[in-house]
Design brief:
It contains ten helices and eight strands. By secondary structure, it is of the alpha/beta class.
Length: about 220
C-alpha cells in the first residue's frame, strides 16, 4: 500500500513564528491591546484564532473580524519568512523512502500555493489543500476532502504538524500523526496530544519511516 505524508505548512515546513508574532503585535497595538512575546505566543496560540485574539485583549464586538484577518495577513506578508533549515532534507528523505507527499493547511489556498512556489517546494507535493478564507479557524473540512481524494491511500498516511489542532485533525481523519516541537506551540503543550513529539522535520520523517516499516 502506498505510503503518504500529509504536511502542515505554517510553523512546520515554514519557519514563520517570529513573523507571525510581529504581525500579530502590529494588529494588537492598532486595536489598543498590548504586544506579546514569542514565549507567550507559543504558550497560548491555538485554533481557532478568534478566541486567542479575544484573550489578548482584542474587542471582537468593536472590531470587524474580516478587517482583523486582513490586517494580520497584510502585516505578515511584509515580514521575512523562510522554510526550516532541514525542510528540503526532510522532504527528500521522505521521497527516497517511497512516501508520496501532500500539504494540508489552514492558510488560504492562493496564499499557500504562492508560498510553496516562492520557497521552491511545490514539486515535492502531489496535492496541496488550503482553505478558502483568512479566518484561521480550522482545516478539518479540507482534511476530509483531502482524505476523500486520497481514497485508499489515506489508510496508510501520517500527518506531520506543529500544533494540537494538527493532532486533532489527524485523529478525526483516522490518520497517524507526528508533531514537531519547533513551531507555533511549545513541546509541553504538544505532549497533551498523546502522539510522538520530535524536535525536527528530519526526525519526524525518520519516525514515519520506522512507523510504517514496523507495520
Amino acid at each position: 500500500m502506498e505510503k503518504r505524508l500529509i504536511w502542515d505548512w505554517n510553523g512546520t515546513l515554514l519557519d514563520d513564528v517570529p513573523a507571525a508574532v510581529n504581525a500579530l503585535n502590529r494588529m494588537l497595538v492598532k486595536r489598543g491591546a498590548s504586544p506579546i512575546s514569542i514565549a507567550h505566543y507559543r504558550s497560548h496560540f491555538g485554533f481557532p484564532v478568534r478566541p486567542f485574539y479575544a484573550e489578548l485583549g482584542v474587542d471582537l464586538d468593536r472590531w470587524d473580524w474580516d478587517e482583523i484577518c486582513e490586517d494580520f495577513h497584510s502585516y505578515i506578508a511584509e515580514e521575512p519568512q523562510s522554510i526550516r533549515e532541514d525542510a528540503v532534507a526532510a522532504l527528500q528523505l521522505a521521497k527516497g523512502h517511497g512516501f508520496s507527499q501532500c500539504v494540508l493547511s489552514a492558510l488560504r489556498q492562493d496564499l499557500l500555493e504562492c508560498s510553496l512556489e516562492k520557497n521552491g517546494l511545490m514539486g515535492f507535493f502531489d496535492l496541496v489543500y488550503g482553505v478558502d478564507n483568512l479566518d484561521g479557524a480550522s482545516k478539518l473540512q479540507r482534511g476530509k476532502e483531502l482524505v476523500a481524494a486520497l481514497g485508499a491511500g489515506a489508510a496508510n498516511a501520517i500527518m506531520i504538524g506543529d500544533t494540537l489542532h494538527d493532532a486533532e485533525v489527524a485523529k478525526t481523519l483516522g490518520v497517524d500523526c507526528v508533531l514537531v516541537s519547533c513551531g507555533h506551540q511549545k513541546p509541553e503543550r504538544l505532549a497533551a496530544a498523546n502522539v510522538p513529539v520530535v524536535p525536527s522535520l528530519v526526525e519526524a520523517v525518520k519516525h514515519a519511516v520506522l512507523w510504517k516499516t514496523s507495520k
